Amino acid sequence: MGEFGWAQPFSVDLLPEGISQCIDYDDEEPVPTCRNCDVPYGPDCQVFIVDGFLVSDNVSLIELHNIYV
């Protein structure tokens, strides 16, 4: 697998005051939502989790799910 500089962990330290990150991958084995397309999908394919939302303090998160089909 190659190194891809675009796929880096998101640091919540970058968020300004009043903004929160909403994610749905606290499970023991999170489901990837993105992959590199330079090789066919398979067990050696590099995969990532890229889904999430940023919300301000005046927004209430009621429910959030990544759906894997």
Question: In total, how many beta strands?
Answer: 4
User: Segments where pLDDT lies below 50 for 5+ residues?
Assistant: none
Strand content: 15-25%
Mean of pLDDT? 80
Helix run count: 0
Distance between the amino and carboxyl termini: 25 Å
Strand adjacency order, main sheet? 1-4
Structural class: mainly beta
Helix/strand order, N-terminal first? EEEE
Overall, the morphology is globular
The amount of helix comes to under 10%
Largest sheet: 2 strands, antiparallel
| Rg, alpha carbons | 15 Å
Polypeptide structure, described:
With 69 residues, the protein is an all-beta fold. Helices cover 0% and strands 17% of the residues. It has no helices and four strands. It has strands at 19-22, 34-35, 47-48, 53-56. Strands 1-4 form a two-stranded antiparallel sheet. A two-stranded antiparallel ribbon has the order 2-3. The protein is globular. It starts with 18 loop residues before the first strand and ends in a 13-residue tail after the last strand.
